[in-house]
Write a structure and sequence with these properties.
The chain is α/β, with parallel strands linked by helices. The chain contains four helices and five strands; from the N terminus they run βαβββαβαα. The protein has helices at 14-22, 65-86, 106-119, 126-136; strands spanning 8-10, 26-28, 32-38, 52-57, 91-97. Strands 1-4-5-3-2 form a five-stranded mixed sheet, sandwiched between helices. α2 crosses α3. It starts with 7 loop residues before the first strand and ends in a 23-residue tail after the last helix. 25% of the residues are buried.
Length: 159
């Protein structure tokens, strides 16, 4: 069994799951349901903990114990591949298994999670951001016109 990813924390307690569900911010796809909640002052990871936390759930509607465990394992791996690289930090995510999760083709399950992040506005393209930072010398590098590379102004309009 692989070690948990240090960039993603876990939701463990029922109130944490209920807080995420209570925001009613979700995306439903054939292979999964993604629920999202932005961190606030009441439920925030402790200092030094990962900025993204994940919870997984599969009800008995999904199937027997073997099917539910397979669905959770598939969701955990999908989250490891997609959330660690592309999810916006500062959020709690809950992945809910559906009846089709255990049998859904892998590429389609990954597509469901990708589409959910994009639909909720939480997708960040890590490779493009890294390439942009390298090309500009970092997010706060000084450009030839005296402004910063992060687009936060500093230059003259219409120059």
């Amino acid at each position: 069994m692989a070690a948990p990813d240090p960039r993603v924390g876990r939701l463990k307690r029922r109130p944490e799951f209920l807080a995420v569900a209570g925001t009613r911010r979700k995306h439903v796809a054939p292979g999964l349901i993604l629920q999202v909640r932005r961190h606030d002052e009441r439920q925030r990871p402790a200092p030094g903990e990962p900025p993204i936390r994940l919870g997984l759930t599969a009800s008995r509607k999904v199937g027997n114990a073997v099917v539910r465990n397979r669905a959770r394992r598939r969701l955990r791996e999908a989250a490891r591949q997609i959330l660690t690289a592309h999810a916006a930090p500062g959020h709690d995510f809950v992945l809910v298994a559906r009846a089709a999760t255990a049998e859904r083709p892998w590429t389609e399950l990954l597509g469901d999670l990708t589409a959910a992040l994009k639909r909720l506005g939480l997708w960040r393209d890590a490779s493009r951001n890294e390439a942009k930072n390298e090309a500009t010398g970092g997010p706060n590098a000084v450009t030839p016109n005296g402004g910063t590379g992060n687009g936060s102004g500093g230059g003259e309009a219409g120059a």
